[in-house]
Structures are given as structure tokens and as C-alpha cells.
Amino acid sequence: MITVRKSSERGYTDRGWMNSYRTFSFEEYQNANYMGYRSLRVINEDRVQPGHGFPSHQHKNMEILTYVINGELLHEDNKGNSCIIHADEVQRMTAGKGIIHSEYNPSQSQELHLLQIWIIPDEKDLRPDYEQKEFTYNSKSDQLCLIASNDGRKNSIKIHQDVNVYASTVIT
């Protein structure tokens, strides 16, 4: 059964340089009632101050989607990827056997606002991989836009799990 959880009921973490709302238990926010949903493990809404971010760290066996709402995110990893993810772009990082990466807000003046979604892959120890795509405002305006799927249909990002991830910008 799906239960509606209001935004204000999510876990909250303030690190000074970043504040984060966590839908499911993650790091210091722990709630036994919210440990994930099936293969969906993390939905974090983060706001990162200019010039701050996460130094190099490792992930394994996770599909990580990063959706930049406002600002820019600099991603660098040990597979040779060095990219800036802009607003309305989505990045998929297949951690697989293991990937080391860093993420920073490269701006010295603008806050970075993003969603990070972690999905447990349908297979362990995949080859680490990276993909990035733009999903324009018009493609999401008052409609659902498929941004990630297991087969990459409708120009969505391909992920290793039988799930569909949609985005929409709702105008009220």
C-alpha cells in the first residue's frame, strides 16, 4: 500500500553548507517506518551552498539518479568522467562493482538545489557507468515526462531495474 507522506514530515539534516530533506532513512536520519520502498532506497532533496560539496567517496551496487532543479553540480569520478550537470538535467551513475566520485557546487554565488534518488539495481557488480540527459521545462510542463526506465524508451535514461521514474512541473 502506498501512503502519502507530506514534505514537512520528512527527515531533515542541516550541515551548515548543505541542508537535506530525506524521504527514507539515510545517514543520521533514521526512521524504522521509512527504510525505502521495494528497490527505491533514497530520495533526498538537497540544497548545497556555493563552493561546497562532497569530496571523493565510493559507492557500490546502486543506481544513483541526480536531478538538478536549480544551479549546477560538478561531478568527477575515477572512470574519467568530469561533467557539469545543469538545471533540468539528470545524471545516472551505475556504481556497480564500485566507483569513486566527488560532487560539488562549482558556483561561488548560486545555491545548488537537487534531488538524489538511489535505486537498488536488478543485478550486482555491474560495470560502473555514467549517463546524463536534459529534460526541458516544456517536456515536463503540466505533464509526466519519463526520465528513467529499464529500457531507455522515450529518450529516458536507462537504469538497471524494472522501474519508471517520471518528472513533472505542475503549474498552479
Description:
The protein has one helix at residues 137-140; strands spanning 11-14, 18-22, 40-48, 53-59, 63-70, 72-77, 82-86, 89-94, 99-104, 112-119, 129-134, 145-149, 157-158, 164-167. It is mainly beta and 172 residues long. The chain has a single domain (7-135), classed as Jelly Rolls, CATH 2.60.120.10. The strands form 3 sheets. The chain has a 7-stranded antiparallel beta sheet, with no helix packed on it. Strands 4-9-6-7 form a 4-stranded antiparallel beta sheet, with no helix packed on it. A 3-stranded mixed beta sheet has the order 13-12-14, with no helix packed on it. The chain is globular, with a radius of gyration of 16 Å. The relative contact order is 0.18. The mean pLDDT is 96.
Draw up the topology in text.
Elements (H helix, E strand, L loop, with lengths): L10 E4 L3 E5 L17 E9 L4 E7 L3 E8 L1 E6 L4 E5 L2 E6 L4 E6 L7 E8 L9 E6 L2 H4 L4 E5 L7 E2 L5 E4 L5
Features:
Jelly Rolls; mainly beta; 172 residues; four-stranded antiparallel β-sheet; 1 helix; 2% helix; seven-stranded antiparallel β-sheet; 14 strands; 47% strand
